[in-house]
Amino acid sequence: MVKLLMEHRGGIPRWYSIVFPGMLELALAKGLPVLPDGGSMPAVNNVFNRRETILAMEKSSSNDRHPPLTSFLEALPISCRPNHEVILRLQMEDGSLFHSPSATACAFMITGDRNCLEYLQTMLKRCSNVVPSVFPVDEDLIKLCLVDHLRRLGCGEHFAEEIRGVMDHTYRYGIVWLLQLIGRAIERKFCWFMDEKDVLTHIMENYTEFLGAMVGVYRAAHFMFPEEVELHNAKVFAMKVLHKCLHLEGNNADLTGFEKEIEHEMELPWLARMDHLEHRMYIERSKGYITWIGKTNTCRLSCSSFVIKLAIKSFLNRQSLYKNELEELKRWSEGSGLSKMGFGREKTTYCYFLAAVPTCLPLHSDLRKIVAKCAIIVIIADDFFDEKGSLNELECLTEAVHRWKGESLWGDAKVIFDALDELVRDIAFKSFSQYDNGVEDVLHDMVRFDLSLFSINIH
After folding, report:
1. Is-contact 67 100, C-beta < 8 A?
2. Which of 61, 213, 346, 377 is deepest in the core (most CB within 10 A)?
3. Beta-strand (E) ranges in 368-458?
4. Cα distance between residue 278 and residue 348, in whole Å
């Protein structure tokens, strides 16, 4: 216990500073020898001192903090417990005190209120084996956590039907804030704290308690639209809190697993990440899925050996597929003569990674290769128009593309046209085979339009 307290970086969380001393006091009152002889331990004393500071701040403040102290009623010193009237005024519709069984049990012991008792009896009927620290448990949230966990492991494709069912249910029953579909109404609810200066100050002073929430704000802000100013401001504030956690001016070698995840969030923008590499990082770091869902309660989803094995196997299968696709692209680039032209940028690997970032699923193999080939040809053609080709060669290539006949071409222009013609034929064949839809003429028009942009530049 002392070792953990001494190693805790960034201060003791508020909830721990309240619950831990209360737990020790209850144990000592029962005669349990939980402390060494003498009972003086600096690390433990620091927690008690922190509690006294919190209690003093709450007494002098006219604003309630979240979660309020009354939600920790069972752990508060008797001198700090509110009177009967205040407790009953804070009672919720189901008879509980902030959906906390322990706080409600304490409230019943203090007030003898029948509604508290009925809440506890109902809970025990539902939870015969274990009492949760929050009841009722938000089952929809747990399902969403499971979906997030599976997708971050890279297993989402294996549970597509189940995930779709969870998300449809979630959306149907009104948790639409997950999906950023109704604009400013979401922004207003999501960013309410930005208008409360005392709340912002409290978060910044007690940042260790809000790291999970600030990571959520920072991630959600990646989906904002340009006009959502409040969400942008919330993102900036979240970044300040997260930077404070990382101690960026110091040595980051001893960061905890969660802090490393925060560091990764801050260093690499969401849109610049490759899902495949994110899956590997999550598999290597994952010791289960943990999210805070109220008071001292966390939702912990353990990683079964089956899911971990499935995640590893999926990763290795994808890795093998990606390697084979890249080798195939390199052979195509050489066979077509594009990589042997002696000028311009050889970007085969780079173009493949560009294609693999947004289309990482194994079933998107053809799409990845087509996009990469298009990018390779565009880069080579751009360099040909900018650097290598003479005016006569460029005009001949432009004319050949407009007629879609390359018999009169020679040299590098011939190589580019032949690679382009082969790619268009391949795309058209795959489209006709899969969808019975001829797209060759459409592709010709698209290429002619794109080439006209190069022609405008040279003139």
Report:
1. no
2. 377
3. none
4. 23
CB 416 within 8 A of CB 380: yes
Angle between helices 411-435 and 440-458 (to 10 degrees): 150
Tell me whether the omega of the peptide bond preceding residue 136 falls within 30 degrees of 0, making it cis.
yes
Which tokens in the block code for residue 77? 């010193």
For residues 317 and 208, give the distance between their C-alpha atoms in angstroms, rounded to a whole number.
39
Domains of the chain: 2-126 (1.50.10.160), 139-307 (1.50.10.130), 321-458 (1.10.600.10)
List of residues 6+ apart from 39 with CB closer than 8 A: none
Residue keyed to tokens 């101690």:
247
Please give the single-letter amino acid code of residue 331: R
The pTM score is 0.67
11: tokens are: 């201060």
| CA separation for the pair 192, 188 (Å, rounded) | 6
Q: Is 369 exposed, middle or buried (0-12, 13-18, 19+ CB in 10 A)?
A: buried
Rounded CA gap, 18 and 28, in Å?
16
Residue 179 pLDDT grade (very low, low, confident, very high; cuts 50, 70, 90)? very low
Is residue 301 within 8 A of residue 150, CB to CB? The reply is no
The residue with tokens 């590997």 is: 280
| Strand ranges for 295-379 from DSSP E | 297-301
Q: pLDDT digit string (tens) for 90-129? A: 899 899 998 899 999 999 999 999 999 999 999 998 887 7
Tokens in use for 273?
Answer: 């990440």
Q: What is the pLDDT of residues 373-396, one digit of tens each?
A: 999 998 888 888 887 778 888 888
